[in-house]
Amino acid sequence: MEFTFSPAWWHANYGMDFGEDFWRDPVARTERDMRQRRLLFERFGDVRMGEEHPRPRPNIEAYGHRFMAAFWGCNIVFLPDQSPGAEVLPDARVRMENLEVPDPGASPVAKRALGEAHLLRKRYGSCYGGFNTGGPLNNAVSVFGQEMLVACLTDPELAKSVLRKMGEALLMVDDRVTRPINRDDPGSPRMDGGLANCQAAMISPQTYSEVVFPVDRWYREQFHGRWNLHHCGVFHPYAETYRLLRPSRIDVGRGTDYRVTRRAFPHTPISIEIHPLDLAGKTQEEVDDLIARTVEEAGPLELVVRLWVAEAGVEMPDQSVRDFVTAPARILG
Predict the structure, then answer these.
(1) 134 contacts: CB under 8 Å, gap ≥ 6
(2) What is the C-alpha separation between 252 and 329, in angstroms, rounded?
(3) Residues of the chain with pLDDT under 70
(4) Contact status, residue 167 vs residue 215, Cβ threshold 8 Å
């Protein structure tokens, strides 16, 4: 059972500011992360949340989940109570038609990441070079907005070209940023990886299969170890196509038919996102019923590896948090 809170929750409850100064200071990010885990322990330690003595987890997430958008040249917007956002590039169609993958060696975003890693390693003794890079479609929509979705319908060859270059950029960043920071040999085969496909729910399963899937399959073939597929929308209409990606684990979102998904993936561990609105203000009995029904439909039990609430906001009562994370103990006895 995993529960995370949005910047708005931290801002409202503890006055934390998530503006540009915070994100651009790698030490401040690391210290804030430790403080957050300690505060969660003080608030929810009775239900085993947080950490009494958190250790540093230095990383290079200077742009939140918008590293790749920044790498492509998008302006990143910082707000005091929100995660960073990316502004779509102007003249998107023209840029899509003339797209070239940036050189990480000349990228100020990549150089910043490598510099932060050096600073953090000197201060803390280590630094993790991995971060949420999304996937080809996620990045294309972040960079080009609705023009990318229009291209998927009206100019599939252009869309495929853009997606392929988005995938190439992901691999280049992995080779030139992530792997060197993690001290992995860039020449060795890529092992564990994954694909975040949050934007796939914005196109039909048929369009996904015909336009996006060929690039996703190529991208999947670049990895030889465990591979996670994240689709935080309604998953089951895409399940038959997703099977061909051979994921080691799948993440699915609200509205998914878990029984249909399980039939498509009978042996695959599944992680299920529970929407905050399905918990806030509910009675303990209602929460227990939701969790029990979800696990039953997505079972067998040993293959339901995580139930998680992402980015809960200020509307989430503390009691609902406690009811969620303690539900298995009541359900399983």
Answers:
(1) 65, 68, 142, 196, 198
(2) 23
(3) none
(4) yes
Instruction: Report the alpha-carbon distance of residue 146 to residue 269 in Å, rounded.
Output: 33
pLDDT number for residue 130: 85
Using an 8 Å Cβ cutoff, are 66 and 36 in contact?
no
pTM here is: 0.94
Nearest to 164 by CA among 153, 156, 154: 156
Cα 306–Cα 309–Cα 310 angle in degrees, nearest 5 = 115
Contact 271, 251 (CB under 8 A): yes
Cα–Cα distance measured from residue 283 to residue 5, given in angstroms and rounded to the nearest whole number = 20
DSSP states of 160-191 as a string?
A: HHHHHHHHHHHHHHIIIIIHHHTT--TTSPP-
Structure tokens at 49: 């949340």
For 132-151, the pLDDT digits (tens) are 899 999 999 999 999 999 99
Task: Say how far apart CA 166 and CA 168 lie, in whole Å.
Answer: 5
Q: What value does the CA radius of gyration of the chain take, rounded to a whole number of Å?
A: 20
Structure tokens at 316: 């989430």
pLDDT (tens digit per residue) in 214-240: 999 999 999 999 999 999 999 999 999
Crossing angle (nearest 10°) for helices 213-220 and 136-144: 130
Do the strands 76-77 and 2-5 form a parallel or antiparallel pair, or are they unpaired? unpaired
Please state, rounded to an integer, the average pLDDT across all residues of the chain: 96
The helix (H) or strand (E) run that includes residue 76 is strand 76-77
**Tens-place pLDDT, residues 106-121:** 999 999 999 999 999 9
List the one residue out of 75, 71, 130, 76 whose CA is nearest residue 101: 71
